[in-house]
Amino acid sequence: MAEYSQQVNNSLMWFRQDLRLQDNQALAAACEHARRSSVSFSKSLNEPSNASSDLSQVHSQQSAGSVRAVYFAVPKQWQAHDVAPIQLDFIERQLNVIASELAKLGIPLDVIHVASFEEIGDVLAQYLDYWQINKVFASSEPESNERLRDENIAAQGIELALFDQHCYLAPLSVRNLSGDMYKVFTPFAKKWREIAKQNQVETLAKPAAIAAPLAQPSEINLRCNKRCSNEWQVGEEAAHQKLRQFAKDKMHDYQASRDFPAIEGTSRISAYLAIGILSPAQCLQTLLAYFPDALVNDDSPGRCWLNEIIWREFYRHLLVAFPRLSKNGNFNLLANNIDWRNNPQEFQAWCEGRTGYPLVDAAMRQLNQTGWMHNRLRMVTASFLTKHLLIDWRWGERYFKQKLIDGDLAANNGGWQWSAGTGCDAQPYFRVFNPISQCEKFDPTGAFIRKYLPELDGVDLKLIHKLKIPNQAQLFDNECYFSPIVDHKFARTRAISQLSVMKRGS
Ligand code: FAD
């Protein structure tokens, strides 16, 4: 007696901060799961045998299951968590690209709007029921709310396979000899390189089509507050092109040029990493294609850029190891005792680039106008806010998030706490960047300042660098440049005194 058994695996790919088709382990696994669907045919021994026709019957009935994809849009949550309108626009544009690419593979992408983050589990369960899907595939996320959401979904009985691909080395996999998470970057980076060099970097190609191509999808609209991000090309090819171009032309000189905001000496791929158009493995693979010794040779010209990729990993590992960081807690608990001044007018002046310190103001205007800021300037402006103005780093971190196209909780939190001296392996509280000498050192030709502060046109560069700008007296007068919001020496002494609550043993 012949028996047919059939197992159809319908998969769901849940896109999150991994908006790419290449090197997406979750998407590859979703496709693989569907392909493993099978129809098998067996019969009892006393039946007449006709092996070839049996086999062809089995073969002809083997059908892959289906793959669908979803993206959850949560505009209220984005607003509550200050996701920058420019980043949302970038996400929407990239979603349109991948929806079209997925359609060619026979995979429909549904963007599902939900009122709140908490609703996602129930909406997902209904969706799975409706489409008869038995397994969900997604990338893990390091933030604590997101991890809790996934735990709740798994507790609902939904089979959720998570892939740790927001980092090259999975969070918590880089530990010291006692098995703990490193709290200092240099030994973390050393161990990270030791582990990374054990295996060849491998990345996945785009999956093969799972079914016949679908009609081109209609335009996706995230229905949220957006700001045009057209300056940043979307699509995986554009991102790889940018990365390769940087590796080919600029990586060699990165160490020497990366601190000068007037020079385009850095890769500008942070926006692509933040929403996952590029994976960390792809970045490492490209780096090693040009500088194969970067992992093993301290003097490799690729080493400096590699270290920045490792900083990104460090902050993500910390977020997982210390969940209070996701909730904006100080890493250094002594920092809970800081009496921040939190003057709202001064905060507003900082946001708008009206502090009277040219480098700080030009940087803030770069952020406001373009949605991106050079790393050196992120450090200078964050130090100025937290140390010169003694404003809580969380105010600045929130403002950055509201504006940055590359807004990323781990890197932003890490960068702010590093600058404020409250973080893990942070700059010590008594080190206060001098915004005058930083300006002279890192914008020696004044090209950057002049680009964003046209009111300084015609002012002698030496006067700008020494902060001896004429007509600076009229604070907040739009006709001329502002007088400094606070005297540097006074602010420095005040900061060291106020922040000394973080002195060990105090
Ligand atoms: P490159 O210099 O080319 O570096 C390559 C990649 O390494 C970057 O794209 C980024 O992914 C990573 N990287 C570089 N520097 C750091 C760093 N210090 N910490 C973590 N990762 C790093 N980066 C973000 O991606 N999102 C943020 O929200 C963010 N906020 C920051 C806030 C502050 C106060 C500070 C000091 C830094 C912040 N950074 C943030 C880190 C860094 O400034 C940016 O990653 C970098 O300027 C992006 O430019 P790039 O792609 O040209 O970097």
TrEMBL record:
The record marks W340, W393, W416 as: Electron transfer via tryptophanyl radical. FAD binds at residues 254, 266-270, 305, 308-315, 406-408. GO terms for molecular function: deoxyribodipyrimidine photo-lyase activity; DNA binding; FAD binding. Residues 9-168 form the Photolyase/cryptochrome alpha/beta domain. Keywords: Chromophore, FAD, Flavoprotein, Lyase. Its cofactor is (6R)-5,10-methylene-5,6,7,8-tetrahydrofolate; FAD. It holds the Pfam family DNA_photolyase. Its EC number is 4.1.99.3. InterPro entries: Crypto/Photolyase_FAD-like_sf (IPR036134), Crypto/Photolyase_N_sf (IPR036155), Cryptochr/Photolyase_FAD-bd (IPR005101), Cryptochrome/DNA_photolyase_1 (IPR002081), DNA_photolyase_1_CS_C (IPR018394), DNA_photolyase_N (IPR006050), Rossmann-like_a/b/a_fold (IPR014729). It catalyses: cyclobutadipyrimidine (in DNA) = 2 pyrimidine residues (in DNA). PANTHER family: CRYPTOCHROME, CRYPTOCHROME CIRCADIAN CLOCK 5 ISOFORM X1. Involved in repair of UV radiation-induced DNA damage. Catalyzes the light-dependent monomerization (300-600 nm) of cyclobutyl pyrimidine dimers (in cis-syn configuration), which are formed between adjacent bases on the same DNA strand upon exposure to ultraviolet radiation. Belongs to the DNA photolyase class-1 family. Belongs to the DNA photolyase family. This is Deoxyribodipyrimidine photo-lyase. The lineage of its organism: Bacteria, Pseudomonadati, Pseudomonadota, Gammaproteobacteria, Alteromonadales.
